[in-house]
Amino acid sequence: MSDTAELRLGRPPAQLVGGWELGLLVLMAILFAGGALINPAFFLSGDAFHAILRDTARYAVVAVGMTFVIINKDLDLSVGSTNGLVGVAFSILFAPQFNDWGPIGATIFCLVLGTFIGLINGVLVTILKVPSFIATLTMLLIGRGIILGLTGGRSIGYAVKGRDYPWFFQLGETNALGFNNQIPIALVIVIIGAIVLAKTRWGYETFATGGNEQAAIYAGIPTRWVRIRAYLLSSLCATVAGLMAITQDKGVTAQAGLSSELIVIAAVIIGGASILGGRGRVIGACLGAMLTVVIDKVLREGWPTTRIVQIDGQDVEVSAIAQLPVGAVPALLGALLLLAVLVEPYVLRRRLVGRFWAWLRKKEPPLIIEATGIAIEGVQTKGTMASDKALTARGLGKFLARRDALAIILAVVLWLVGVWLRPDYWWNLQNSFAILLNYTELALLAVGLSYVIACGDIDLSVGAVLALAGAATAFAMKVMGFDPMIAILMGLLAGTAAGLINALITIGFNLPSFIATLGMFYIARGLAAWIVAGKQLTGFPESFNLLGRKVGDILDHFGIDVGSGTLRTISEAVSVQTLWMIVIAIIAGIILAYTPFGQMIYATGGNRRAADYAGINTKRVRFISLMFSALCATMAGIIYTAFFRSFNPTAGQFRELDAIAAVIIGGGSIFGGYGTMIGALAGAAVITLIRALLQLNIILPGGGSFVMPQHWVNVFTGLILIVAVLIDIWLRQANILAGLRVRFARFIRAKSEPEHA
Amino acid sequence: MPEELKIDSATTPLIEMRHISKAFGAVRALHDVDLRLYPGEIMGLVGDNSAGKSTLMKILTGAYSRDSGDVLVGGAPTHFKSPHESRAAGIEMIYQDFALCGNMDVGQNIFLGRWPRKGFFVDRKTMYSEADVVLKRLKVDVNSVYQRVESLSGGRQQSVAIARAISFDPRVVVLDEPTANLSVMATERLLETMLELKKHGVAQIIISHRLQDIFAVGDRVMVLKRGENVGERHITHTTEQEVLEIIVSGKREKAA
Q1: What are the Cα distances from residue A353, in Å, to A348, A358, A738?
Q2: Is the pTM for the entire model greater than 0.80?
Q3: CA nearest A375 in B: which residue?
Q4: Are residues B76 and B117 both part of a single domain?
């Protein structure tokens, strides 16, 4: 009976592979041919093919887990640092100079560590409802901080001890059959992953969860467990890949797995998965990994060049390998990611290939499936309890009911803690000046970001755009020899171009802002490193440096004397950038709080659909906000360059985390619709003060002193961001404290009632 | 027809809700509401916005817990804590927003969350052939069980949602505003489907603002106002005008 049914129904659609995978294979062949044309010595050797397969193996393993996560409509940015952290953990346990464990014990520890990281990610994202990109980005940076903290930036090697355990380290070596053992390991994992995703209930549950989580819940699918499971898979896959790297390298560097999340996410997306969830295949992701590795290799391997050099009047031919400078590879991979996210919604879903083919044959083109959402998007009505309280509260209660009260109180308390710990340092004018400068940079970013976050979007690229703008300005002045005004203009141009791309991808192509700005995060930082690679960018004209000077210096520069009173003291403590930031913040604050445009921002973030229906051009509002955020980051970058009188490509690193944390602590909601300028400024003050306190040189009773290393400070900032988001979601919005109070009151009443009766 | 119904009311109702009350904080959503549903009957549940229709149905399916009152299914008292428990008792609710996964195909959606298994794998042969049987039984025209749901029109999506509900072999189907998002043609087809279901002996409760739909297929209509029963009529004994008047200006009328 079922056989006849099968006949009547026709052949069911293929699950494991589709036409897209075939296209990827063709594209890869073309790329390989291109590589062979540029560098035949490398690409036409069997070694190249083998090396590509070997490197693909590790990325493909991580991509298997990532496919599950992305189909669930989540994202796991932490795989790169999990990958590295596992390597470091294994090395520290295994290396004879440290703990000298056996490989089995160290491996087991690593698997436990991977499970633990996956569990944290999963619980944060599902049960605690932190948006996945925030939770895992924080895990990424915490992981990186721990790696640097544990290794101190040095590599650990144990090639000698490794020889005692050939059965383990052989796993990363070429075997008797002539290929690397990592390839069959990856193949097994990919095949298992592909079958589980396409043919079992686990896979079906994943597709249902990503397609329409509400429907999946109605259908009795335990979606929380499905999502946690995917994070566990992803984290364990990253662990296995980390161990594979260990067996190959017999050591680890502090850079292990650095930005490999970019390659893996790009791979999964190129493989046909949708960043909007519900679509993807493991085989596609694996081919995507290979394609990304090929591109990576083509970019990194470089091409042979010959130069004629004159030595002692004789022409000597020198062969060299021309390579792309540092930063170019992540920049191009970031651009690749941005292109890739367009593939599924705009190529696959619209059947571009099929329509083109039909057009070529002059046939009727297949229908476009417009995936208009079936589910009604979760109705967002937030913070009702807190708002109610604000309406009835009086006096101090009214202040406490404000969403930004926490930040203001914290800023004051932290400052007092600083005074209490190190009065000598805290009261010193020079040091206050340093803190104020740190504050200025962060506050400027937070001002722009508070617009974006109030709109319900996010900008992960502010730190990178800061670096890009600084690099562009420095480059224009020193290398291209422009005068400061034009250089500043070029910096502004570079930064706003980055903002324009963010806005175009987010609004023009209707994709989530986190993916657009994540791509920009890599592109802008990569470009900054690329621009300044190998150049000494210092010694700018003094008229430019004045942008980053104290008011006093400017007065001196123009020969104005204000005597030596209070005015002089103030002019020594306040710098141009602080004044500039205050001007921007006041204007932005007034616009946000008192103009129709500000109300439009809140409406857009509160309920975009309602705002659309009300005739607000939400696209324009979000576009302007993203551009404004990039503009603020750009100004911060130019000021950075002026202040340090030089440019360093690490400018603004980790600043995106600080700025997001500042806005959230200051009363913004990660889901949009809230945030004030005063809150953002106070939040920035909190972050700055926490950083200053963590970096304080604390004088111990014994006369010694203690300073926390920078890596651990970054770990703490990551934790602060997570705590801030959790406080926002659970205390401000879900108001669990009030819930507990009600329950407690009921409990007391229930206890006291029998006595009354 | 009316005589039949009167005889029915002497038999055990399929569903009996007695003295249901529910408050959300200070808001009284339902107060002492009664509801009876007999086998093979289509009952319209009408009332203004915030009359408590959806709340009553969510209490029936266990999506909400009641503050007081009893729910009897087939004469036996029940205490459903979630829609899954009421589903086991043969009660299915079809949500206004269809609750389907657009990225999956018709067959996968009909068996959402309970895909048949063969060893480790999903048994696609059984799944698709059974899905096809259910669709045929409902006489809905979906081209293929392999079609992705997002490529279907609103009416067809509704059909898939109903097919999914039917595949559980329910005794009672609750439809919450099923025609709200449908075109005229699709509404016609949905009403036909409801009559088809009735032929199979499935009792249905339809929540709707559109009285003409209820008068087209319903046997009985019950009116709620501000969380109270204000009227109950047999369709054959009433007019749309009368029901409308009850909705607007009905007073609590409690069967003695």
Answers
A1: 8, 9, 55
A2: yes
A3: B97
A4: no
